[in-house]
Amino acid sequence: MLFNSTLLSPRENIKLVQEQLSRKGVTVTDDQAFAVSHEYEDKMWDVHKLIGYGIALLLLARVIIEFALPEDERMRNRFKKAIAMSKQNTEISAEYKHYIRVKLTYTIFFILLFLMALTGLGMAFGHELGFSRDLHRSFKNLHAIIQYLMYAFIVVHLAGVIIAENGRIKGIVSGMINGND
Questions:
Q1: Which pTM was predicted?
Q2: Which residue has better confidence, 27 or 40?
Q3: Domain segments of the chain: what residues?
Q4: CA-to-CA distance for 60 and 54, rounded, in angstroms?
Q5: How far apart are CA 103 and CA 17, in angstroms?
Q6: Do the Cβ atoms of 29 and 57 come closer than 8 Å?
Q7: CA neighbor of 56 nearest in space, from 7, 124, 2
Q8: Do the beta carbons of residue 120 and residue 143 sit within 8 Å?
Q9: What is the pLDDT of residues 81-113, one digit of tens each?
Q10: Which of these, 34, 45, 40, lies nearest to 1 by C-alpha position?
């Protein structure tokens, strides 16, 4: 959505629309150019909403899958096992500690994703649900803050993958692609 708030900002593109139409011999007012520019922003928001609905559905599917898994394969039980193994004084306990840190990071990611989906759905359907303007504004602000936290997560994640791939955990990328744990 950085593109929408920067490159596709209607107010920033009024002159661009006017210049392009002027080259074709058409003169338009600022209001007319704004209307054209605003249409592109609206189209981007429509795509944003569709992607958001898709993410919300995928998140819901992930939650359903988690509860459908056998008890010993659920994330909570895997955490418990890893915590127990990390308390042992063995070389392998360091690997379990790393596993715990990685899974905690993913837990934070999923919490952020859940909040992102919840605030996005709140903005999309808030009017129909009777949400106040203040609540809508709160959802919008929280949604924006989470957006930047997600960007930070992506940067940290990519850096961690690059460091691990070039360090002691070779093949981590192919493991993620092929589903190895």
A1: 0.75
A2: 27
A3: 1-68, 72-181
A4: 10
A5: 48
A6: no
A7: 124
A8: yes
A9: 878 777 777 777 777 787 788 888 888 899 999
A10: 45
